[in-house]
Amino acid sequence: MTYENLDRKLINALLGDGRASLRSLGEDLDVSVTTVSNHLRDLEDEGVITGYSPIVDYGEMGYDVTAIMHLKVEGSALPEITDRLQAQKQMISVYETTGDYDIIAIGKFADTDGMNDQIKDLLEDVDIRESNTSVVLNAVKDGDQFELDVDEDE
Predict the structure, then answer these.
(1) Range of the domain at 17
(2) Separation between Cα atoms, residue 39 and residue 58, nearest integer Å
(3) Using CA atoms, how far apart are residues 16 and 90, in angstroms rounded to an integer?
(4) pTM for this prediction
(5) pLDDT tens readout for residues 75-125
(6) Checking phi first, is residue 143 left (phi over 0); if not, alpha (psi -120 to 50) or beta?
(7) Rounded to 5 degrees, what are φ and ψ at 130?
(8) Residues 69 and 41 occupy one common structural domain
(9) What is the DSSP letter of 46?
(10) 52, burial (CB in 10 Å: exposed 0-12, middle 13-18, buried 19+)
(11) 92 φ/ψ angles, rounded to the nearest 5 degrees
(12) Could you tell me if 89 and 39 lie in one domain?
């Protein structure tokens, strides 16, 4: 197995169980604990793996409203607006985009009143030229990660 394949297999194993021990990862990948530890450290140092987090179902925690905000922003204000959005704890994703809108932001809210308050606060900014907000009716797939392709011949 090449090191690239080992790294990909290690990532895939962690996607399946982010709490797996080094020992169990080594057994599953048929390599030593030291090899797993070294590769894991390298993946973290290179920024490929940036952390380990629980997967939270926000709906189960009372955040039943998901809003997708599309914003047109005055060009020079783009960094300021994206910084402001990412600082808001309920914004789970903020993207600078091409196309009709400059920013797409996704937020989770306990109710529509909380969502409206945050949107109204945001729209007071004179650098936001236009906005369009959609409320998600049903999340068919949300926040999934995917396993990496592995060349089984190596």
Answers:
(1) 3-45
(2) 32
(3) 26
(4) 0.82
(5) 899 999 999 999 999 999 999 999 999 999 999 999 999 999 999 999 899
(6) left
(7) -160, 150
(8) no
(9) T
(10) exposed
(11) -90, -20
(12) no
